[in-house]
Design a protein that fits this description.
The complex is a heterodimer of chains A (495) and B (150).
Chain A lengths: L3 E4 L3 H13 L3 E6 L7 H5 L2 E4 L4 H4 L4 H10 L4 E3 L9 H9 L3 E2 L4 H8 L1 H11 L6 E2 L5 H11 L3 E5 L9 E3 L5 H16 L4 E5 L5 E9 L5 E13 L2 E7 L6 H17 L4 E9 L5 E7 L6 H8 L3 H9 L14 E8 L1 E2 L5 E2 L2 E2 L2 E3 L6 E5 L6 E2 L6 E9 L2 H14 L1 E3 L5 H9 L1 H4 L7 H5 L10 H17 L3 H4 L10 H8 L2
Parallel strand pairs in A: 1-2, 1-4, 2-3, 4-5
Antiparallel strand pairs in A: 6-9, 7-8, 7-9, 10-11, 10-13, 11-12, 12-15, 13-14, 15-22, 16-17, 18-21, 19-23, 20-22
Helix pairs in contact in A: 5-6, 6-7, 8-9, 13-14
Chain B lengths: L1 E3 L4 E3 L3 E3 L2 E4 L2 E4 L4 E5 L2 E10 L2 E6 L2 E8 L18 E6 L6 E2 L4 E7 L2 E6 L4 E6 L6 E2 L6 E5 L2
Antiparallel strand pairs in B: 1-2, 1-9, 3-4, 4-5, 5-6, 6-7, 7-8, 8-9, 10-12, 10-15, 11-14, 12-13, 14-16
Classes of the chains: A alpha+beta (495), B mainly beta (150).
Chain lengths: 495, 150
Amino acid sequence: MLKRTLVANRGEIACRILRACSEAGIEGVAIHAENDSGTMFTELADIAIQLEGEGLAETYLNQKQILDIAIENGCDSIHPGFGFLSERADFAQAVMDAGLIWIGPSPDAITKMGDKMTARITMKEAGVPVIPGEEIDGGLEEVLAIAPSVGYPLLLKATAGGGGKGMRAVHREEDLESEAKGAMREALNAFGDDRIYIERLLTGSRHIEIQVLADNHGRTIHLGERECSVQRRHQKVFEESPSVALDSELRNAMGKAACDAARAVDYVGAGTVEFLVTPKGEFFFLEMNTRIQVEHPVTEMVTGVDLVREQLRIAGGKPMSCGDLNMRGHAIEVRLYAEDPANNFLPSIGPLKRFIAPTGPGVRLDTGVREGDSVTPDYDPMLAKLIVWAPSRIEALQRMSRALDEFVVLGCTTNIRFLRELCDHPDVIDGWTTTDMIERLWPDGWSPDMPSIVNNAGLLIAAACESTNHGRILASSGNESLRPSTFETISRRFP
Amino acid sequence: MEFKTSDSRYEIEPNRDGSSFVHDGIIVHAGGEIWLEIDGRKHKATATKVGDVWWVHVLGHTLQYEIIEAGATGSNEDNGLTAPMPGKILDVLVSQGQSVSQGDALMVMEAMKMEHKIIANCDGVVESIHFNTGDQVQQGAELLSIVENE
């Protein structure tokens, strides 16, 4: 049984884990860089410790400092979340060597799956189908030499990678050298490792992943699939479960392959096996993410399993608590990014002057920010995840549309309207989601479909607000004389 | 009253009655909470001012209107070679005086761990380069200039 867990992460996922700790009766310790002081996750922790230094390498990626803090504060375990140190086998090993529990799979499993070349070889041996491609063990010369044998279009990927960083699609031979240089540079910056590999880009395919859970008592199960095909810049924006592309036969086959993949590396904890599924219904192993994943809530909504609680339970040495699974209804997650979809999805920054989240039946918001926070260029632009559950897929889409219409974020440009239009798109409604769909549907970039009445209304509201100095009293409510007296509001609070 | 958006300018002089405003058949009530009324149907709106920009959420859309003060002049149109986001210059791929073609990559910049290329928007000659590798730039900063070929 865990007693005190250090969460080696920030933002939305740190909030998610700290809440699970709180529910499980485990004390949560947050670590944060100076520029994250006072943010939401630091407040959800029982103890919040400020990291010394600046920049990711000195703070959230600083293994020694984080481990020292865990030991000094009497932690018995470390949860890495996703990104940052979550797939660093050396950190997992250091945590274990210090006598602490690593909430995740063994360093050996992380190494085998984290290095994409080793993973391919391991999966081939375990009988799990892999994409045709080539591993590169060298520099730029090898990339240029091997590319012709793989064929175009091709995909360059960081060997140590994930999250779209260091990943490039190359459609023409003349672009290969500059794209390879860029991919290697990005890989070096993001992961400290510039190795890349080449694989054939399977266009028109779906990205479908299987959630697995394994404990130390001999049980490895899968919790169905997540369809994550809608991506921009190879980062997912819209995820759902179940997938319209899978029938029970294909689901069982992929579920079995995922469990085989997990068993091949003696996997323990929560993990995700990603597959590409071609229009013909063939599936190929892409990679295994040896950590909790951004889109885990959709699986939680349809299975009723609390994946983060299970991680904590399994790490504490107990068997997983879920019995036979019974999938219900349909869940969709969209990722709220601080970015401008009308400007090629480039990151945006600004103050969250208003942040009013949707509520109501079947709506869940996993957020790392709230009103009054600022979005800075220091970290990943994902602010929050909006998840809905409904009895059927079409009702889930309708619920998501309603929730996105209610979602107010003012002061920093977000992708809310883009997500809202996605929900209305016939291809999404019909379930024709593919990894290239955003480029396919909006080849010249996206811009909002805005009826003139909306612009006219917005303009009139701006004029009315400017004329009445809207919000000015609220903004200066620190001034005692402007606050309404308690006696004026008492009847409202106690009707 | 004059407002500017990313692609247009607007002048609007609504009829005001107390805290209610009317224009083109649309009514806005701005006393306390903001309500929009179109064809007798009411819609809640939210607005806040950041700097000179009114951010408005209405009918599921988020819009921005920058107030233009009377007498102020608009800025010159830039030629597209400005930083589309705040970030760091990773690489300068051209030098002063170099001839470039439309579509050529000129600079590589990075923000939030993602790379972005600055692309030539015309055929021409690089007139000046304002930043070096490693420099931090603000959104909208002019990165370099090109003299277009006649």
